[in-house]
Design a protein that fits this description.
heterotrimer; A alpha+beta (about 70); B alpha/beta (about 350); C alpha/beta (about 250); A: about 70 residues; Alpha-Beta Plaits; two-stranded antiparallel ribbon; elongated; C: about 250 residues; alpha/beta; Rossmann fold; seven-stranded mixed β-sheet; about 20% strand; 2-oxoglutarate ferredoxin oxidoreductase subunit alpha (chain B); oxidoreductase activity (chain B); Transketo_C/PFOR_II (chain B); Pyrv_Fd/Flavodoxin_OxRdtase_N (chain B)
Amino acid sequence: MEHKFLVEVDQERCKGCSLCIDACPTNVLGFSKGFNAKGYHPAEVQALDDCIGCGFCYQMCPDVCIEVKALAKQ
Amino acid sequence: MAEKVMVKGTEAIAEAALRAGCRLYYGYPITPQSELTEYMARRMPEIDGTFLQAESEVAAVNMIYGAACTGKRVMTSTSSPGFSLMQEGISYIAGAELPSVFVNVVRGGPGLGDIQPAQGDYFQATKGGGHGDYKLIVYGPESLQEAVELTGKSFDVADKYRTPVLILADGMLGQMMEPVSFPDFVDEKELPDHSDWAMTGTKMERDAHRVTSFNIDPYGLEEMNKRYQARYKEIIKNEKMYEEYMLEDADVVIVAYGTIGRIAKSVAKMAREKGVKAGVFRPITLWPFPYEELAKYNDQAKLFFTVEMSAGQMIEDVKLSVNGKKPVGFYGRMGGVVPTPGEIFAKLMELV
Amino acid sequence: MAYIDRFKGPHALSGKEFTYCPGCHHGIVHRLVAEVIDELGIEGKTMMVAPVGCAVFSYEFFNVDGTVAAHGRAPAVATGMKRATPEKTVFTYQGDGDLAAIGTAEIVHAANRGEKITTIFINNAIYGMTGGQMAPTSLLGMKTTTSPYGRRADREGHPIHVSEVLKELDGVAYLSRTKVNTPQDVIKTKKAIKKAFLAQEKGIGFGIVEVLSTCPTNWGLTPVESNKWLEENMTKEYPLGVFVDKVGDGK
C-alpha cells in the first residue's frame, strides 16, 4: 500500500528542537531513541500513514531538515 | 593579606574598579569582555552605583565624557571594534582634560576579526587612535593580580593628571581565571577633589566652570595644547613602569608585554636550559614607553627579540630604543592566535 | 510509485548547516527569505548585508553575494551598495541589538530616504550572540544578564517599538510586524517578506518586516516553551499587523 505522503527527515542535520513534533497535527513525528553525530535525539517519522501533507513540520523546522512529498496523481 | 578569590579577568578588573571608588559605568556588550559589563550590572546597584548599558560604544564614551565632567570616577570597557568607535570621544576627553578609565580587551582584527586574544591595537592605544596631539596612559597587565593593581592605579593617575587612562588587556587575560586578592574599598572621603574645575553647579557662589576641548582662536588652542604637552612630559618623567627578568647577564633581551610578557619568561627559561642567556624586558606602561630603561641594555645585549600577537607594532618602539645599535628580531602571530612557548623558542633559536 | 516534491528547501539556501541554536527562529526566517528569492527569480541579482549578532554568519547560508557590516551599520552599507548598483536587489538581515540599539540612526535614515532596500528585522528581545544581555526591545521585568533585577522603565526605559517609530517616515513603502511561532504565522510571514522585497523590486521604497522571534538559549526555555512565551508576552507588547503597504496586490 503506497503512502499518500512521504516525510523525510535529515537526521544528521536535525538538532532535536522538537518544533516539528509539536507542530504536526496528526502525530506523525517523534523523537528517535538513538543519537545523531551532533549528540541530539533527532526527529523521526513514526506514523507515516497519518500524514496529511500539510507541511507544518517543514514550515516550523529551523534547519531545513524536512522534505514532504506527495504521491503523483496517475 | 586579604583573602584570595578565584575570579575571571574581566570580573577582576570590574571589582577592582569598584574598590577604587568607581561608581559610574556605562558600556556595551562585546566579546570577549561582556562579563565586565554584566558584572557591573549586577554589582553597581549593590553599592549604590550607576550602571547603564548604552545603545552603542559611541554613546557610551560620550556618557563617560558627561560623567567625568562632574569630577567623579568613571569607567567603561570594550573590545577592539568598540574601542575604535570610542576614538572621537577619547580625543574629546583628552582635550577637555577629563579623568577617566578605559579597558580594551583586545581581540583579533582588523575589522570584525574574531573573538580570540590579540595585541593588534598597540598603535591605536599608544600612538593616537583619535585625532589630535594627545596621549593615553596605557597599562599592559600580565596577570589578573597585576590587572587588579593597575586598575586601582589607573584611577589614581587619571585623577592626578586629569587625563584618560587605558588598561590594554587581551582576550586571554579577560577570559582566564586566577586567584586574586582585592584591596579594600577606598574611602569616598579620600577620593580626589575636583571642585576647582568640575561641573557641579555654581550654586550662585562661583564663576561658571567651562569644560571644553574647543577654542576658536588658534593661539588659544595652542596654549591649551602646550598645557597638555607639559602634562605628558610630567607623566613620562614619573609614571614609567616595567619589569626586568633575568637581564643582569642577558645576551638576548626578549621584549614583550601583557600575557605574552608572561609567556616570554617561560621562553627565557627554556633558552637558558639550552645555554642561551636570555632575559625579558616587560614594559608595563606601554605609554609612556620605557625607552631609556630598555636602551640601558644596548651595549650588553647581542640581540633584542620582540614577541607580539600582531604583525609587529611595539617593535617600532623597541627599535627606537635600540637605535640601530643591535639587531632586533621578531616573532608575531596574528588573527587571534596565541603562540606557545615552544613556537617562540623555536624562532629565538633560529635567530641566535 | 512516483512522488512529487510538495515542501522542499529553496535553492537560494547554500545548504550549509545553520550555526543557530536548536529551535532558533533565525533558521525559519532564513528559509522564508530564500523561498521568496526563489519565487521572485532574483537569486542571481540579490546581495545581502549581514549584521553583527547571531546572524553574523548568515551570508554563508545564502547563495547570494554577501558582506557583513559593522554593528548596526547594515542599512548604510546597503544604501551604498544599492545606489552603486541600483539594478541589484539588496537586503539587510538584522537583530534587535544591531537595528534598534547601535543602528537606530542608520535604520531611521535609510527608511526616511526611502532607500530601495529590504530589511528583515529579527526581534527576540535579547542579545543572543554575546550571551543574553538586555536589548532595547526586552520586555519590562525581563531578567537578562545586564538587567539582572528585571528591566524597569524608570531605569532602562520602555521596550522600543521599532515598527511604530518607522511607520511615521514617508520613505517607508512596506512595513509590517509578524511572528513565526506557529506554522500559520510562518506562512503569513513569508507573504510579508515577499511584499517587503516587492517594495524594492517595483521601485516604490523601503521595505521592512519586524519578525517577533524566540531565543530559547538565552530565554532559558525549550523551543516549544519559547514559542508559547512569545505568544503570551511578546504579542501583547508588540501588536502584529501591517503598518504601511504601498505595494498593494501587484505581483
